[in-house]
Write a structure and sequence with these properties.
about 0% helix; 6-stranded mixed sheet; 10 strands; globular; mainly beta
Length: about 110
């Protein structure tokens, strides 16, 4: 059974940091490129970042470039998103997903507010 379980979301003030984690199971994690996407209520999904299976190629949306860092630990089957200098517009439900769109987690809420 495939599972992607996100954690690490929460409420932080603008300028703060959070580290999201996504624990994977039930599939061969290290051969899949993985992504973080986010969704604001009433809006569509926004791609945030992705990383290839080996972890050496990463891409970022312009809106998060220089503030967010995606990484993965294939031995532990965990995907990470380090988020720094958070802004109110980063508030969203964050999901991890395979870039193939086969798998997606249930999401973790990130709220940036003073």
């Amino acid at each position: 059974q495939v599972q992607l379980v996100e954690s690490g979301g929460g409420l932080v003030q603008p300028g703060g940091s959070l580290r999201l984690s996504c624990a994977a199971s039930g599939f061969t994690f290290n051969i899949y490129s993985m992504a973080w996407v986010r969704q604001v209520p009433g809006k569509g999904f926004e791609w945030v970042s992705d990383i290839n299976g080996g972890g050496d190629i990463t891409r970022y949306a312009d809106s998060v470039k220089g503030r967010f860092t995606i990484s993965r630990d294939n031995a532990k089957k965990i995907l990470y998103l380090q988020m720094n200098s958070l802004k109110p517009e980063d508030t969203a439900l964050y999901y991890c997903a395979s870039t193939s769109n086969e798998y997606r987690g249930q999401g973790t809420q990130v709220t940036i507010s003073s």
